[in-house]
Design goal:
The chain has 438 residues and is mainly alpha-helical. It has a domain at 19-170 and 207-223 and 295-424. Helix content is 66%, strand content 3%. It is built from 19 helices and two strands. The chain has a two-stranded antiparallel sheet. α4 (73-93) packs across α13 (268-283). 42% of the residues are buried.
């Protein structure tokens, strides 16, 4: 850890004054919030000879309000829009092609996920050979691979950056409002006409709308504390109205057993959470940027961002493997009723164990996030088509894990990301420096 801090301090000292450090800080804090939320809410429970891979939201309804704080995926798309706008603008200025720019982005985003998929394909095949119940393999791998849904959606947002950025410059905030209106209409059809399949279109409408807010932030649309706070307050009041008198649940993450989820697929409350978060976070940008000029908080930010993909991708694998080990060892720590006093007393122990397990995985797999010699870009059509294949595979795996009826007990769709990566020339063994985050 001392060596890592020293390396981060060196990188922090070389940071140019023009960099908006607050963007990196929000990215780092958001990833820590995601990890903390997932680990805190995880509530595996052994009872009556069986195991339930449940979460606290099922047992304590008051925790649904906590998701308004821990649901920070809109922040990722907000800072993604900001950094993608800076990066694409610089690429155009420097005469770099779309192929060069996209290659850098895809290597950084998709390269590190390939080792994770390899590990779970191997674990799934080994579990099948050892006659582990398919339902456990499916549930365990699905729980571990939940984070990759974000990559599937965000990568497609990156592919579309030249078009969404051009839309921002031509239409300004109307490029946001058009997507927001599309999200509203989609929800109307979802609830009013019972066209549930159309609800999946909101993965594009909602998250691209929040991504447009990142452009708006970068271009100064949110200038002035009054505007940002009014923006946040309007979003909050609308959100409260929707979950109070509308058809939407309180929880901002999916709760097993509930008929409607605000996230699967995303609905209007997710967009409103993004509106609230963008207003509140941008309102404190000036003092936060001054604070981040200090070496200690900025070094910590650099340290987290240097391994951000690794800890994001592997944090649920760390907890899943530990839970599996506890089951093998006689259900150690798994018999307390979720939400009970004993369960809460065990939380610090479990969180510490998860952290140690994640640190070990980060030491092994963090190498795939480091800068290496550049990878020559494939043709743009290959990169785009490959990204579609990768993201399609990631989406299906996030929904239902790797276990299935295919060869070796692995779902055939698990191979789709590898096909897409080969087509787009994405590899975990190298990436370009093109398109690094702003």
């Amino acid at each position: 850890m001392t060596s890592l801090w020293t390396q981060a301090a060196g990188a922090a000292a070389r940071t140019p004054d023009t960099r908006n450090r607050y963007v990196d800080f929000l990215r780092a804090v958001s990833i820590l919030a995601v990890i903390s939320g997932h680990w805190l809410m995880a509530a595996p429970w052994v009872s009556g000879g069986g195991v339930r891979l449940s979460n606290l939201l099922e047992y304590r309804s008051w925790t649904h309000f906590l998701t308004w704080v821990f649901q920070v995926m809109p922040v990722f798309f907000l800072v993604g829009g900001y950094s993608n706008g800076v990066s694409w603008k610089a690429a155009v200025r420097d005469g770099k092609s779309y192929a060069d720019w996209l290659n850098g982005r895809l290597q950084r985003l998709l390269g590190p996920v390939m080792p994770l998929l390899v590990v779970w394909v191997v674990l799934g095949a080994a579990g099948t050979a050892a006659h582990v119940e398919p339902v456990l393999l499916r549930a365990g791998s699905q729980m571990a691979l939940v984070p990759i849904w974000f990559l599937a959606v965000y990568t497609m947002a990156v592919v579309l950056v030249p078009f969404t950025y051009a839309a921002w410059h031509r239409f300004g905030m109307w490029s946001f409002w058009a997507l927001a209106l599309a999200a509203v209409l989609d929800d109307v059809l979802f609830f009013g006409a019972d066209l549930r399949l159309l609800g999946w279109l909101n993965y594009g409408f909602v998250w691209l709308a929040v991504h447009q807010l990142g452009y708006a932030w970068r271009e100064g649309w949110f200038a002035g504390t009054r505007r940002t706070l009014v923006w946040a307050a309007t979003g909050l009041l609308t959100l409260v109205a929707l979950v109070t008198i509308g058809p939407y649940p309180v929880s901002m993450v999916s709760v097993p057993g509930e008929d409607v989820s605000n996230t699967l697929p995303p609905k209007l409350p997710m967009l409103l959470i993004g509106v609230v978060q963008s207003g509140l976070l941008i309102s404190i940008e000036a003092p936060m940027r001054r604070w981040l000029r200090r070496i200690t908080p900025w070094t910590a930010t650099v340290l987290v961002n240097g391994m951000i993909m690794t800890i994001f991708l592997w944090h649920l694998t760390a907890s899943t493997l530990l839970i599996g080990g506890a089951m093998v060892a006689g259900d150690i720590g798994l018999t307390a009723v979720p939400g009970s006093p004993t369960w809460w007393l065990l939380r610090p122990v479990w969180l510490a164990a998860y952290l140690v397990a994640l640190a070990g995985l980060a030491m092994i797999f963090g190498r795939f996030e480091r800068d290496r010699p550049g990878i020559p870009p494939a043709a743009p059509w290959r990169q785009v088509l490959g990204a579609v294949f990768v993201c399609g595979g990631l989406a299906f795996l996030a929904l239902d894990g790797v276990a299935g009826s295919g060869a070796l007990g692995i779902r055939p769709v698990a191979l789709l990301p590898f096909v897409g990566a080969a087509l787009a020339s994405v590899t975990p063994f190298g990436r370009t420096a093109v398109g690094t985050a702003a």
